Amino acid sequence: MGDPVIAEASSLPAHVPPELALEWPLSPEAVGQDPFTEIIPRVHQGPEVFYAVNGLAPGMPSWIFRRAEDVRDIFRDKVHFTSAGRPTLSHMLGESWKVIPVDTDGEEHAAFRALLNPLFTPARAAQLVDGAHELARELIGRFANNNRCEFIGDFARPLPVILFLNMMGFPQERMEEFLEWEAAIISGTSLEQRQSAVINIRTFLLEAIAKRRANPGEDLLSELMRGKLGERDPTETELFGMALNLFLGGLDTITSMAGWHFRHLAMHPEHQAALGADPAMIPTALEELLRAFLEY
Ligand code: HEM
Fold it and tell me: Residue 50 forms beta bridges with which residues?
């Protein structure tokens, strides 16, 4: 990849100082197999804030903030930064529902987070640990004797996805179908493909909500449905929006992160050996891996 090119000043919006506008392609397609060796090091040598003319995709510019303090400030600033107006999944269908809470702002966001936060405390996460260990051992047991595995398919995909489906009370046997829908939304090449994935997920989630209404359980979706927004119950559309955010968040993030993390360890046997020799370092190593590889 060539050096970044300063964008043509005449083609920039008025608020963009030309010296901060760079034509770095940042989309995964443009960057190729390994953004962490090809583009991220260059980004870190550049300005702390810049305007990527082809940020997310050609013709989709974005401001890029490199410093954690700036990102923190932006998330807290309800006056200058908003989620409203960015393209959402519902716009693809000509509709206006929200993925909740990620598409909401301010008071509305706080109300949904107040409903969701009690379901995602460290104590709740701790309850998952034994089951996660057991599943991890079972998956490793399936390939341990081969001395090799296809890491994503054999481990990084089934581990978080099975845990998530169990948490939500969704059927494990539909895992491949769910993953296809998720993949179509994230990287579908045509609008029709992405639209039909959103419709399939919506049909499934609305049916799941109806089933829980008739027959509530102890799963996460049932608990979500028992939650309150202040004094009132969430509407069907709000429940769907929250379930959709969890569905999108739960199905591919950890697989993708674990892929980068274990690739790093495979390519750095000295780090692998250090963690093997002193497992107490694993939590710190994980923090650092999450920081280093978030999120492509
Ligand atoms: C390592 C794994 C994960 C990574 C890297 C990750 C990354 C992110 C990022 C970057 C955001 C902010 C998006 C934005 O503001 O536009 C976000 C929000 C969110 N994620 Fe994740 N995520 C992960 C795992 C999960 C899982 C497993 C779930 C659900 C089971 C989840 C549910 C959510 C929700 C509900 C939000 C919205 C939070 C809000 O707007 O207040 N995420 N995630």
Answer: 64
